[in-house]
C-alpha cells in the first residue's frame, strides 16, 4: 500500500488572502491530505487571535473541500519541523511572491532540510494576479479605510472592518 502523501502549508494567515487561497487550491491536488498549519506566532503582532485565524481559514476553504480535497486546519505553536513530523507530513508547501521572499524561504528550507531530510519543501510561485498581495499590506489598507475586497473574501473583509471600527487595530495579545 502506498504511503499517504501529507502536505503542510504553514503560515500566520493574519488574515487569509486570495493569494493564500490560490496556493491552497493549487497544492491540494498534489497531496492526499493537506494540513493548513496556522502558526500562533505572537511575535508578528497578529491582528486576530489564533482561534480567529483558524476559523477564518476554515470559512474560506469550503469550496476547495467541496471539490473533493481533504484539507484540515490545525493551529500550532512549535518548531515547524516538529509540527510537520507530528503530522507525518511528506512535504512543506510554501508560496513565493517575489525574489525578496525567495532568500528568506531558501534559508528556511535549508535549515528544515538539516533538521529532517525526509520532509521536502516545495515552492509554488504566486499567480500573477496575487503576487502583490500580502497580509501585512491588506491590514494596512484596511486600517486606513481602503477597499480590501479585492484581496480577501467577503467574510474576512467584514471581520477586518469590524475589528478596525471598534478601534482594535493593534495586535491581539496571545
Describe the 3D structure.
With 174 residues, the chain is α/β, with parallel strands linked by helices. It has a single domain, classed as Rossmann fold (3-Layer(aba) Sandwich). It has helices at residues 18-27, 50-60, 62-66, 80-87, 99-115, 135-143, 154-165; strands spanning 6-11, 33-39, 71-76, 91-96, 120-125. The longest helix has 17 residues, at 99-115. The protein starts with 5 loop residues before the first strand and ends in a 9-residue tail after the last helix.
Question: Strands, helices and their partners?
Answer:
Elements: E1 6-11, H1 18-27, E2 33-39, H2 50-60, H3 62-66, E3 71-76, H4 80-87, E4 91-96, H5 99-115, E5 120-125, H6 135-143, H7 154-165
Parallel strand pairs: 1-2, 1-4, 2-3, 4-5
Please outline what is shown here.
The protein is 41% helix and 18% strand. It is an alpha/beta fold and 174 residues long.
Helix content: 40-55%
Number of domains: 1
In angstroms, what separates the terminal alpha carbons?
42 Å
Q: Strand percentage, roughly?
A: 15-25%
Helix tally equals: 7
Structural class: alpha/beta
Helix-strand pattern? EHEHHEHEHEHH
Q: State the shape.
A: globular
The tally of beta strands, per DSSP, is 5
Residue-averaged pLDDT: 91
CATH superfamily: HUPs
CATH class: Alpha Beta
Order of the strands making up the biggest sheet: 3-2-1-4-5
Tell me what the CATH architecture is. 3-Layer(aba) Sandwich
Give the biggest beta sheet.
5 strands, parallel
- The stretches of 5 or more residues where confidence is low (pLDDT under 50) are none
Rounded to the nearest angstrom, the radius of gyration is 16 Å
**CATH fold-level name:** Rossmann fold
Amino acid at each position: 500500500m502506498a504511503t499517504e502523501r501529507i502536505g503542510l502549508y504553514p503560515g500566520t494567515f493574519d488574515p487569509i488572502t486570495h493569494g493564500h487561497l490560490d496556493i491552497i487550491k493549487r497544492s491540494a491536488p498534489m497531496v492526499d491530505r493537506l494540513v493548513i498549519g496556522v502558526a500562533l506566532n505572537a511575535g508578528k503582532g497578529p491582528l486576530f487571535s489564533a482561534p480567529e485565524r483558524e476559523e477564518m481559514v476554515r470559512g474560506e476553504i469550503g469550496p476547495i473541500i467541496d471539490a473533493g480535497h481533504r484539507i484540515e486546519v490545525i493551529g500550532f505553536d512549535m518548531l515547524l519541523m516538529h509540527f510537520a513530523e507530528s503530522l507525518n507530513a511528506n512535504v512543506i508547501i510554501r508560496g513565493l511572491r517575489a525574489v525578496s521572499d525567495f532568500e528568506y524561504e531558501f534559508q528556511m528550507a535549508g535549515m528544515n532540510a538539516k533538521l529532517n531530510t525526509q520532509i521536502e519543501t516545495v515552492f509554488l510561485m504566486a499567480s500573477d494576479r496575487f503576487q502583490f498581495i500580502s497580509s501585512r499590506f491588506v491590514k494596512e489598507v484596511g486600517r486606513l479605510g481602503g477597499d480590501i475586497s479585492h484581496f480577501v473574501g467577503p467574510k474576512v473583509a467584514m471581520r477586518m472592518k469590524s475589528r478596525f471600527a471598534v478601534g482594535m487595530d493593534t495586535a491581539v495579545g496571545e
